[in-house]
Structures are given as C-alpha cells and as structure tokens.
Design a protein that fits this description.
The structure is a single chain. This protein is an alpha+beta fold. The protein folds into two domains: about 70 residues, 434 Repressor (Amino-terminal Domain); about 110 residues, Jelly Rolls. The chain is built from six helices and ten strands, in the order ααααααββββββββββ. The chain has a six-stranded antiparallel beta sheet, with no helix packed on it. α2 crosses α4 and α3 packs across α5. The two termini are about 25 Å apart.
Length: about 210
Amino acid sequence: MGVERGRERGKDLLTGAQVLSGQLGKTIQRLRKAYNLSLSELAEQSGVAKSIISQIERNETNPTLATIWRLSQALDVSIERVLATGDEEPFIEKSSRADTPILVSDDGRMRLAIIGWIKTVEWLQWYDLSADPGGVLDSDAHQRGSVECLSVTEGEFEIDVAGAVQRARAGETLRYRCDRPHTVRCVSETTGRAIMVVIMKAAVME
C-alpha cells in the first residue's frame, strides 16, 4: 500500500513538473511576490539555496523534482495537513480581504485579487478583477491548450487575442484561448468588475 501510494505521489509530482514546464520560473516568482516573501525568506522556508531559487525564477536552470517539491511545500500548506482534523469534520477555509494577494497591471489601472486556491494554481486559477476606465492588462501566452473565461459583473471589457477582438458587458462571459498573447481592456466609462478564470491544459488532459 505504501509503495503504491509513493508511486502515485511520484506520478503526481512528475505531472506537475511537466505542467509547469516553461512557466515554472514565472509561477514561483509570482507566488513568492504574492505572499510578500523575499528570496532569502523562501530559501529559509524551503531549504533551497537563494541562488538556486533566483536561477529558477530567471529560467536559467532545470530544477530537480525534489527542489520543486520543497518549493511547493514552502509556498503552501499541503491538503493532507489542512484536512488533518479528521475525515468526518467539514472543511471550511476563510480568507479575509487583507489576506488576499493583489496583482496590479503595468499601467496601474487593473487589479487582480487572487481569490483562487493556491493548491490549484497548476491547473485552475481565478481572480476578482477590478479596472479603472481605460485600464489595460497585457498577458503573455499561457501553456498550450489553456482557456481563459471572463465573466463581467460591472462595466464593459474588450478582449484581444492575436488580433481577434470581442466585447462583453455586465452579465456576459467571454471564453478564449489564452495560449497566445492576449489583452484585456476596460472600455466602459465607469469602473469595470469581472471574475477571471484560467483553465490550464492539465484540467482536460486524459
């Protein structure tokens, strides 16, 4: 039983490493900054040398699975420990507004509150997006096969994916491939609000 469980965990780790391939550095850096951790602090928590983490974030090295595991453990509490209170007890986790990391666009006019669970970041991410009129969010291509969904709750947004442009108002949802450069713009004269969900390829594999 123990051997089988070990094989399953090894398979999960390999899959996770493949999923993150090419974006591992950006992912580690984004999570570290979202939690306001310095390189030194993450190095202390994970046991991975500061210089190695720096190289990983710049995509200058291919980390071992053991290194990826140590970093992932340092960046979040495992689900096993979260549910350690017992299988029969309900699991309820609450995050306050103050505990919710905020990402800001380059122009400072779009804010993405990371309301998704850190444990799903490899295959599912979601954000509470708020934007000032004229705000622009430029994004690089995500991994191949990824789809982004933008559900507008206030105002109006425009999506530009490789030259294909579409707009959505409050109550409408746009779904589009995000494995190519894409841009989100707030085109209303008032503040825009939306829920953004990113479904990575891992969610539809096999």
